[in-house]
Write a structure and sequence with these properties.
Chain lengths: 229, 100
């Protein structure tokens, strides 16, 4: 199962490479040492939050605001972790507490789309390769990021999004409900981000919850009416 | 640079870990009603939708970058490519697009 996890994680590891390299590069230009840069990737392991923290650090924002912003941005993982718990095998709690550290948008999406249940050893494999890519490439980015050709940086920025699409489409083909859930969440997310200017972390949480509840509610309603007839 | 950078990194790590860890360890024995189980099962698809839209169209200032990337990923996936294949095809299409 560990090897199965590694195999599923290769796409994430590749997608993380340019994001982490760029993070390392930006961290350097923000004034972080290579130790601080690598340590942040090792301890936080959350792309968006790390990027934004660099922004805030360069603006001279205080520690409390930076930590609070990180929390707001990453609260969405609560929802993902709760959803994953529904298909997690009954592994010892310490193992679940350990792999919980590695839940990101990407590792969650891959694990959630996997058929059947999710075991701790699968998660360890999946996270091992993703985490290694994230940490190592952050360090490399700090050293050589400036030498990465721009055309490569630009076209690789699509990689993680392409992965999300590649995870979603097979589900959409077999279950129409998946399409409605995704489109509904995407539409709400657009409205929250672009129109109401809700912070990104909250926007994803709200869009996900509203869409998941709304589509479930419609589903039950339709079932009721079918039974009534 | 902040002299308390290590404190900041540690704090960021803690507030990131807690939401990841709580449901997997504390919800362990809680039995949810069927409706809410269904909602949790819906979460992955909804999350993917919110992660893709509108983000994919805003990666670069040029809107066509996202549109081409999105279309090639959907097509590749629809025609049966696996996740790695989808990533490969869209990166390739956009490399060609960027060069042209």
């Amino acid at each position: 199962m560990f090897r199965h996890g590694i195999k599923s994680g290769v796409a994430i590891a590749i997608g993380y490479a340019p994001v982490a390299l760029t993070f390392g590069l930006l961290a350097k230009s923000t004034g972080l040492s290579i130790v601080e840069t690598t340590l942040m990737s090792m301890i936080v392991f959350a792309g968006a939050a790390q990027y934004i923290s660099l922004n805030l650090l360069s603006l001279g924002t205080g520690p409390f605001e930076i930590i609070l912003t990180t929390f707001i941005l990453n609260i969405r993982h609560f929802l993902m972790s709760a959803s994953l718990n529904e298909k997690a095998e009954h592994d010892p709690l310490w193992k679940k507490a350990l792999y919980a550290f590695g839940i990101t948008d990407e590792t969650f999406s891959v694990a959630a789309m996997k058929e059947g249940t999710v075991s701790a050893s699968y998660m360890f494999g999946l996270i091992f390769i993703s985490y290694s890519s994230w940490v190592i490439n952050s360090a490399i980015g700090h050293i050589v990021g400036a030498y990465l050709p721009e055309s490569v940086q630009v076209s690789l920025s699509i990689a993680l999004y392409a992965m999300f699409v590649g995870l979603l489409i097979p589900a959409v083909k077999t279950e129409r409900k998946a399409l409605w859930l995704a489109v509904c969440a995407g539409a709400i997310n657009c409205m929250l981000l672009l129109w109401l200017h809700v912070p990104k972390g909250w926007a994803i949480v709200i869009a996900t919850i509203v869409s998941a509840i709304f589509i479930q509610w419609i589903g039950e309603k339709r079932k009721e009416t079918t039974y009534a007839q | 640079m902040h002299s308390d950078i290590f404190f900041i990194i540690l704090g960021m790590g803690i507030v990131t870990y807690i939401p990841r860890m709580l449901p997997l360890t504390v919800f362990h024995r809680i039995n949810l009603p069927p409706f809410w189980r269904g909602v949790l099962r819906n979460v992955p698809y909804a999350t993917l939708g919110a992660l893709i839209i509108p983000g994919i169209f805003l990666i670069q200032d040029d809107p066509w970058f996202g549109i081409f990337g999105f279309t090639s990923a959907v097509l590749a996936s629809w025609l049966g490519a696996n996740v790695m294949g989808v990533v490969f095809v869209s990166v390739l299409v956009l490399t060609v697009y960027t060069i042209i």
